[in-house]
Fold each of these.
Amino acid sequence: MPRTSIHWVEDMSHNDTLTLTKLLRLPERLQVEENWLVRQEKKIVYLPTHLKRSRALIPRLVEKFTSPSTKAILCPSHRCLDPQLIRRLFLSIVDECTTRVRRFTDSPPSDRDIRAWLTRVKTINSLWTQPILYRYLFNANPGDPEFEYTHSECEACILATIGGNTTMLADLRICAITRRTNHGPTPRIIRILDGWLYWTGMAETIRAESDPLYLKVRNARRGRPITQSYDSHAMPETINDRRDGTRDYKRDDRRDNRSEDRRDDKGDDRRDQRIPESTDADIIGFYLNRLSRMSRTHQRSGRPNNDSTHSLHPAFRDNIVFDASTGIYGQRQEDDIPLVPSIPSIIPEPKRQPPMASSSYSRAGSGVGFSNSTSKMTEWRHDDYAEQRSEAYRKLVTRDSEVTQDSKEMEWLQQYPWT
């Protein structure tokens, strides 16, 4: 029986991580172009089924009615990937570049190396934020280095660009690993970053070169002296690391197969025990704070305050609204979404008439026999139903009597024609 699609990063096995990171990896000196996209589309065909969009009828119906905020924006070449898994990977990367470095952006550090690292991390946001808005939100100048904006807004293409850049991977890994507490769980994005580093062929070298910067950033996060060292192995290794850079894949496969049976029952419990991660609401709050700050600056300087939400990535722009009359940004609430108007019925619904009080059991205060429920026969009758029935009976009797009298006169005339 084929495995169901994986929607959570923590449910990915080691082999799943290596497979997906090998696919979503654009070499550093290349750009997203047609030839690379064609090769991507061919490679996706050979991916495991649980890493791709399900083709079964019921899962596709469920996906159709799933909230758009949980599904990734994918280009035609990456449309067969699982959209929910790609969206969570993308949000994990955006989280490291926005909310996780807010402490340093609000109060810039004095150390030159940390400031340079922070600038490189903020520059990653230029991949999914249009250039003009990116410079406003992250205080960048037009001459500062920035990456080319991904015009397709495909989240898989953005992840592939990050996965092929060793500098980005090293900086993001420092950002993620330094927020880990002592003896605490490892942030889930570490496994993805290590998967990308594995395919560079020099993962150990990159981690060793990042050790001094890792110590500075970690000490700055904890309020310690930046130059102080506390251990001999600065950059901690994850559970998937090996000294010689090799791995026993047969052992991994056996362990993955044994864990598949326990994954469904313990998946939710394992997610609760993981390190708490930011959600898209936290990232939206970050952008909302920056946009509001930019709006206040424009108002004080007298510059026109236009709507800039269209320059954000679709994963966030649909949740932020701009009030043109006040120039204020706000978060879209569920009540702001217009309701779908109901289609009126072709046949108008008849107006129900109150029932007749024909007996003591149908009157209020008549004792135990009183009941508010009425039968269908009395529910649809008019108030003058009894009078209408009497009038109809009287007309019927009168008409029959007239017909009988006329017939008798005709018989008498036939018998006595001379009269």
Amino acid sequence: MNKNLAAIGGIIALLVIGGMVFYYPSDNLSTTDTTYKEPTDSTALSTGTANTSTTVTTTTTVRTATSIPLATTDQNVEPSGTTAVVTGTVTPNGAFTSYWYEYGATENLENKTSNQTVGSGYVSIPAPGYITGLSNKTKYYFRLVAENSVGRTAGSLYSFQTTSNNPTPVGSAPSAKTLSSNGVSRTSANLNGEVSPNRGLTQYWFEYGKTNNLGDTSSFTSIGNGSNNLSASAAVTNLAPATTYYFRLNAQNQFGTANGSILNFKTDGPAVTSPSVTTGNASDISTSDATLNGTVNANGAETKYWFEYSSDTLVGSILLSATEQVSVGAGTGVVSVDADITNLKPRTTHYFRLHAQNSAGIVKGSQVTFKTK
């Protein structure tokens, strides 16, 4: 969901809308039905009014190949005499995904809400729906359906009953407008936009990625329930230098989801290059200890270094040892590095070399020798 949802493994944010609880954990949609998966949970059909104390808990999904979306219907319903706010979650699984709710006075589900989109990421996204034109004091059945270019899936079937005891909620789905980015550097950028909550308690987030498919998400940010256009922004980090990124703003409240247009920006260059290393001479040599030395230039990308050493000339046999990996930062200058090693054999020739690694690769220095006393 950079606090983005790209941070995997937990609940990212909590939003309470109209008595309902949402849990939040980083185009060109094909309408061809390739697969339709009916619900298989025989206990999913509720025979009474939905339990309004049920909460939606989303889980993150490990990024894999593009696949059919996941759709989970939530029992939590907020009905009035003629409307109902329903909720669920959708995991797009790598392709632009739309969702809607099927509903009706029978299990045949004669009606559906309008399609809404939730992007192409790999995390579970809340999928609210607003059903109108219902009859008072009537039982209705509903379920969430999601579809992307790979296929379509349906969530479990539940029911609720309309009641005039609850007032009809006031408001409508938000609007979202993507604006140009700023503050672009080699590895970060600020994404911008405007959101109008339209009187519904609203949160927004940005999707971004190296293609129009996007795939990564920023964190969810609350923007209130006013009726004016408000500024929305998110700082994204860990970007690749000299790379074009695409992004858009999304906003959501209990009435639905809105998507801004897709814009792009290019991070500053140059592209990341492998670090430069030089193995130095050993120092402070005793009968069993020594200090290994060298220099590293990170070449502008976060880099770690370590030494490999052995009494074997191959420095790669089963006798190989290595020091702890240590960060040298992401600078562009030459930095002196060292590591202390112990438990060496006395009066023995030892071989060592310096290694360094960043996102562009691993580099090995030349092999140097020393002899313990």
